[in-house]
Amino acid sequence: MFSIDRVAISPVTYSLVWAHSRDGQVSCKSAYSCMICDSPQVPWWRDVWCRFIPPSRSGLTWRLLLNRFPTEDRLSRAGFHLASRCSVCGVSSESFDHLFIRCPLAVSLWEAVFSAFQRRISVDTSALSFVWRAVSDANRLEIRCMHNYVDDLLILHRFDLRGRPARAPVIRSVIWSPPAPGWTKVNADGAALISPDAGGCGGIFRNCRAFVKGCFVIPLDHVFVYKAELLAASIAINFARQNRWHRIWLESDSSYVVQLLSSRSEQVPWLIRQAWQRCIYQISKMEFQVSHIFREGNQVADALSKHALRLEVDSWWANSPSFCSLLVDNDCMGRESFRFS
C-alpha cells in the first residue's frame, strides 16, 4: 500500500510544458506538426535513406518512387498542355518511363552498367518497378553479410574502384571494480523491447568487498531506452536515500546518463523531468560520483533490467537473485570481459 511519507520532497519550481515536444518547449515546428495531420510513413523509406546511398541520390530515388517528377506527361494531366518532346533524343514524347528506361541514351547507359555486372537488362517493365528492384538489391548490402569473390574484384576494376578491406576490430578488456571502503557502488541500466514499448530498469548495490547490499527491478510502460536508463539512475539514487547510503558511486553504460549527472543538467524529456530534478537534488545532499563502463562490464544491471520486462510489479532483493548470481560471482572474482569495436 502506498505511503505518502515515501515521496521525496525537493525544492523544485513548477513550470508549464508543451506536451507535443520532447523537451517541453514550444517551437514553430512542434506547433505546426501538432496542427497538421501526421502523414503515414511508407514502409520502404529505410531502403532509400540508408548509409550506402548518397543523400542526393536518395532524394532523386524518393521522388521517382513517389512519382513526383515534373515530366511533361504529368504536367499535361494537370492541365498544362505543352508540345511534349524528349529533351534528350528529341523524338519521343517526354514521359517518366521514357526518360529513365526507353530513351536511347538511358538504354545505352543501362546496358553499360548491366554488362559490367554481367547481367541482362529487360525494358519490358515500368521505371518504378525497375528503380524499386535496384533499391531493394542495394539495401541487401546493409542487412546481409557480404561474400567477396573474384568476380566482385573484376567489377571494381571495370569501374576503376579499389576495394576497402574491413579494419581489424579493437579489443578492449573490461573489468568491474568495487568501490572504496565506506562507499556503495550501484550499477544501473534500462531496457525496452521495441521503443517505445514495455520497458524496465534495474540496478544492484555492492560494497567495497563486492558483497551485494540490494537489487531492484522496476517494470516500465511505453518508454524509449534512453528514458529507461534515466529512470534507472533516478530510482537507484532514490533507493540509496531510503537506505541512508550517503556515499554513492553510480556506474552506467549510458554516456548520456553519465554526462547529465556529471554536469548536473536538467535537460531531459519533460515527462521524467520531475523525477530527474528530484534525483539531482538528492545527489547534492550526498557524496556522489558517477562513471561510465562498457556494457560488457555492466552485465548484472543489464540482466536485471531485462528481467523487469517479464514482471508486472516492482521487486527488491537483499541478495543477488538466482538468474544473475553467476554474473555477480564473475564481478566479485574480477573476471574480465572483452569488448570488440
TrEMBL record:
CDD domains documented for this protein: RNase_H_like
InterPro entries attached to this UniProt entry: RNase_H-like (IPR053151), RNase_H-like_dom_plant (IPR044730), RNaseH-like_sf (IPR012337), RNaseH_domain (IPR002156), RNaseH_sf (IPR036397), RVT-Znf (IPR026960)
Superkingdom field: Eukaryota
Domain RNase H type-1: 180-310
Single GO term (MF): nucleic acid binding
Gene3D superfamilies registered for this protein in UniProt: Ribonuclease H-like superfamily/Ribonuclease H
Full protein name: RNase H type-1 domain-containing protein
Organism the protein comes from: Dipteronia dyeriana
Lineage, opening ranks: Eukaryota, Viridiplantae, Streptophyta, Embryophyta, Tracheophyta
